[in-house]
Amino acid sequence: MDSTDETLGEIPLPPYVTAEDVTFALRAVRVHAAEHQPDGPRCRNDRAPHPCRLHRWGRRVLAERGLTDHDIQTMLAEQETPRP
Fold it and tell me: Are β-strands 40-43 and 34-37 bridged in parallel, bridged antiparallel, or unpaired?
């Protein structure tokens, strides 16, 4: 964790994880993905050490919904695949 994470803490989970929350969480995981830098992995969106607060929040929301890492990767791949 960096100093911002220590100051702000974790982003709270919604009381009930809805389908809309899953959509936002998938976007957070995709946008705040790791990018390799000389000093280690960094969030490609905000340059915080990876995983950043929003990436962790997205993963926690998806886990709360009962999704596994495999499920998450599958859903992210489906979003990236262009539809005919």
Answer: antiparallel
Q: CB count, 10 Å around CB of 26?
A: 19
Six-digit token pair at 36? 């390799």
CA–CA gap between residue 5 and residue 18 (Å, rounded): 26
- pLDDT average, residue stretch 24-52: 94
Q: Is 9 in a helix, a strand, or coil? A: coil
Delimit the domains of the chain by residue range: 3-80
Reported as half-sphere exposure (CB side, CA atoms, 13 A), residue 35 has a value of 10
Predicted model pTM: 0.86
SS3 36: strand
CA separation, residue 79 to residues 1, 10, 29, 75 (Å): 29, 26, 12, 6
Which runs of E-coded beta strand occur in 1-84?
A: 34-37, 40-43
